[in-house]
Amino acid sequence: MAPRSCSTCQTARAVLRRPKTGALVCRECFYYIFEQEVHQTIVSASLFQRGDRVAIGASGGKDSTVLAHVLKTLNDRHDYGLELFLLSIDEGITGYRDDSLETVKRNKVQYGLPLKVLGYDELYGWTMDEIVRQVGMKNNCTFCGVFRRQALDRGAAAMQVDHIVTGHNADDMAETILMNVLRGDIARLERCTEICTKGPDPQSSVGQDAEGGGCGNHNGNEFGGTGIKRSKPFKYAYEKEIVMYAYFKKLDYFSTECIYYPNAYRGYAREYLRELEQIRPSAVIDIIHSGEALRVGGEVKRMPQRNCQRCGYISSNDLCKACLLLEGLNRGAPSLGIHSSKSRYVKEARKGDDEGEASLKIGRKIPMFQRIDSSSSTPVESTS
Ligand SMILES: Nc1ncnc2c1ncn2[C@@H]1O[C@H](COP(=O)(O)OP(=O)(O)OP(=O)(O)O)[C@@H](O)[C@H]1O
């Protein structure tokens, strides 16, 4: 059979079929279309302002490596006027994060972007290896997720960054929507499709924010407790296309799964999604559109936001989730931070504060959260 030509340029030989649209395209057209779709996502959500200092959450994996590459390309191509940085959180997982951080260090040189690495041991006094030794495999993802979210904000605050972008892609988002539907978690379901959030992630159980919306409103106060926006420019990018982009561009990324990854529930949602895609290839984007269009009836109880009395981080309780989890670890009773009735446990933990540092058996408290605001700027607009 004669080779097929690219459906976009009509001249070069098609080398791949786009998973998102089924179109046969050549390599160069694929790169350009993929990049321009991310550009459209950025522009239509008014994600950035000119002059923004933006930290790319860099894990060394395919998604964040492609994100760093594409954002740098678009920043140059469309003159966004962004200052880009790499921000890596070292969870302290031997044989996984130490190796992936080596990749990020190479990316730093390859892309010419400054890199900051912040470790759980430095911030919390515990590495994930130590936490897993105490907690076991079952609940360790709770610790890791809560600690990483806060560590990213703290790293960003130290870098005086306005905005953190992560490599969460369309498949991740569709899985999250499915999980929230299956769990009947209405508050998170309503917010998990947002491209831009503030403070704690809507996918977490910590502190649901009061207002939704994209990044269009750049009133500094809008972003509440941390003042740092967080967004997902790959919200509509298919995981398979991210992998293809990384593969064809020969990007340097780390491809091993976390050794402590027992997130079975997400695994089910992922498998279900794969099965759905066999029957209906547009399932991922259809689920995202359904999630976006969903309006939850009645009152969804939202927790008011304040600052953690111990570490100053944004929280819906007197103490933030990270302080509670850390307290449980330091007391040698890690399940307390996960399962206890909040009010009783918060009271107990705060009693510890009143009694002073001596009440903590090991480890220490999380340092006070501080952020220095950077100056305001003008929105990034489309140049194409
Ligand atoms: N240790 C980390 N340091 C900085 N950012 C992180 C870290 N872990 C995750 N992230 C950010 O969160 C996003 C989603 O993380 P997740 O753990 O779900 O990994 P993933 O889907 O395998 O992504 P990747 O391929 O980038 O590792 C990543 O793309 C990255 O932007």
Automatic annotation (TrEMBL):
Enzyme class: transferase
GO MF, any single term: ATP binding
Compartments, record wording: Cytoplasm
Gene Ontology biological process terms in this record: protein urmylation; tRNA wobble position uridine thiolation
Keyword tRNA-binding assigned: yes
EC number: 2.7.7.-
One Gene Ontology cellular component: mitochondrion
UniProt entry keywords in alphabetical sequence: ATP-binding, Cytoplasm, Nucleotide-binding, RNA-binding, Transferase, tRNA processing, tRNA-binding
Limits of the tRNA(Ile)-lysidine/2-thiocytidine synthase N-terminal domain: 54-275
Chain sites annotated for binding ATP: G57, A58, S59, D63, I89, G167, D172
Location of the Cytoplasmic tRNA 2-thiolation protein 1 C-terminal domain: 306-336
Pathway membership: tRNA modification; 5-methoxycarbonylmethyl-2-thiouridine-tRNA biosynthesis
Family designation: Belongs to the TtcA family. CTU1/NCS6/ATPBD3 subfamily.
Function (record text): Plays a central role in 2-thiolation of mcm(5)S(2)U at tRNA wobble positions of tRNA(Lys), tRNA(Glu) and tRNA(Gln). Directly binds tRNAs and probably acts by catalyzing adenylation of tRNAs, an intermediate required for 2-thiolation. It is unclear whether it acts as a sulfurtransferase that transfers sulfur from thiocarboxylated URM1 onto the uridine of tRNAs at wobble position. Prior mcm(5) tRNA modification by the elongator complex is required for 2-thiolation. May also be involved in protein urmylation.
HAMAP family with a match to the protein in the record: CTU1
Name this protein carries in UniProt: Cytoplasmic tRNA 2-thiolation protein 1
